[in-house]
Amino acid sequence: MSNLAPKRLFSTRPILAFSLIVLLKSFLTWMVVFGGPNWTTLLKEVPFALIVFCFIEWFATKRKLVYYLSANLLMTAILFAVLMYYKYYGVIVTYVALNQVNQVTAVSNSVFSLMDPYYLLVFIDIVVMAYYLIRRKKGQYWKTASQKRISRRVLATLFGISLALCLFNIVPNRASMNEIVKAEQMGILNYEAYTIFSNKNQELVASSDITQAKIDELKQIDKPASPKLYNAASGKNLIIIQMESFQNFLIDLKIDGQEITPNMNKLAKENYYFNNFYQGVGQGNTSDAEFVVNTSFYIPPNGAATQVYPKKELPSLPRLMQEHGYDTATFHTNIVDFWNRGELYKALGFNRYYDKTFFGDEDSVFFAASDEVLYSKTAAELERMDQGDKPFYAQVISMTAHHPFTIPERKYKMELPDRYKDTFVGDYLRAQNYADYALGLFIDDLKQRGIWDNSVIVVYGDHLGLPIYSLDHDDKVLMQEIYGREYGSAEMINIPLVIAASGVTEPQVFTQLGGQVDILPTVANLLGFPLDKQIHFGQDILNNASSNLLPQRYYLPTGSFVSSKELFLSGSGYEDGTHLPLPGASAVSLDSQDEFNRALELLKLSDSYVSQLPTWK
């Protein structure tokens, strides 16, 4: 009889059974995201569930169990999405990411590669319940038993206590800047609800108050009267090559004496190479990099730039080039609808784009034609453009070295040491080795067609490839071997920049801080295009080497920034933030409150300026 009592209790009181289920799933999610649950998890996650369940008990007269199952499924989906999203981005997913749903099928390999089998434990109760309900006799008993009503007074008391606990967790922690910290302080389910109901429009700075002088002052830019290399590449074509997931540690990397990226190594040795260069992307990853590089604006606070600013008439590099008589085009082997690129390219003002309809399905890898096809067909088209009466600007977006980096065997160009085989890091190195091989073919092709010597070539990584959140123990050991130290946040967002221009550049390593936002003003200086009438948030890193400030978003918590000495990761605010020295820096500045404030102000100015731009017609 005593053994049956708990079973009957959970059968007749589903509010207890489902609350326990939510708690167990919350424990699993906290273990992955926050490093483990604690007793406060009970007080942060269960009260939210109890509020939902109290509504079911209060209003559901029939099909009560169906409502419980639906609520459980919804909360399970939220927690599972949090697990998967954190595994790659290192952030807590919110409803804003629903805009990405149509991208998921295109990158399904990436999604499945992130899944540890034990994540599926969050669904096991649903499978068990479904089986139980199929067993008609037992299912009917459960349905009937669950209809037993709870005293309205008890429900009201339980609802009141739960609501008070939710508010106690949410209200004091609203000001926290670090999204991970905020979700831990509030509880994941509370945080998800908070992001929906607290979604208010940011107070914008008037466009008339946003001037280049104000931006330069915040960045402490002291522009020289006679900038070095101004107009040095006048009249040359501009070719910007965006390398998929290419991180800086790949440059000069050898594994057991074998070069991973020999062509990029050669390019970096013979030209201008910036090794202290950082990404500025967010939810849109590759498309965000296209946005930042072509506008010198920061990414929006929520969502991909292509989805937040799709119809803005953006001051951009393509428009600047066209004002000076250039033809402009962009090349990407995927369909133009992916990440809403069709509207992005209109917003940026490209004369035309080349997508899957141009490159076809030949030699397909993942979801589009390979880099070899990209570069071969692009080179032929650039030769045609080069024979016209205008110089050109072309942006070329590589793709084959895309997460999860499991390229087909026909693309293998190296043999991995045994310790790297069947590892995430090993797959990444092999994919980047192939991407480098294809880039080498492109460079040779441009030289043979007579395009190379008459062009400025800019090559950079679009975003990180190895998120620290995605690495298992073996991967971390391999990254420790590669770096000779722990692989952390600063290393993760460090990407290379190489600028090559015959007759202009020479072998030189630049150690000053730079970011993707700086590419537009740097290129404009080389080509001799003044930016007096174009708002931009980057700086010419050939002439402003003493200091820089790079606000970060998304992959790092809001309020984080990279300065000349450190990577600062915000906590609830500045005071409990983390100071991480950049490679080569002897010490961090523990008094960087001013940089923190200026970084936030720069983000606000960028958001305000772009939000108030006119829409294109």
Automatic annotation (TrEMBL):
It is a multi-pass membrane protein. Pathway: Cell wall biogenesis; lipoteichoic acid biosynthesis. InterPro entries: Alkaline_phosphatase_core_sf (IPR017850), LtaS-like (IPR012160), OpgB/LTA_synthase_biosynth (IPR050448), Sulfatase_N (IPR000917). Its main location: membrane. The chain crosses the membrane at residues 12-33, 39-59, 66-86, 117-134, 154-171. Pfam families: Sulfatase. It comes from the Bacteria. Belongs to the LTA synthase family. This is Sulfatase N-terminal domain-containing protein. It comes from Paenibacillus glycanilyticus. The lineage of its organism: Bacteria, Bacillati, Bacillota, Bacilli, Bacillales.
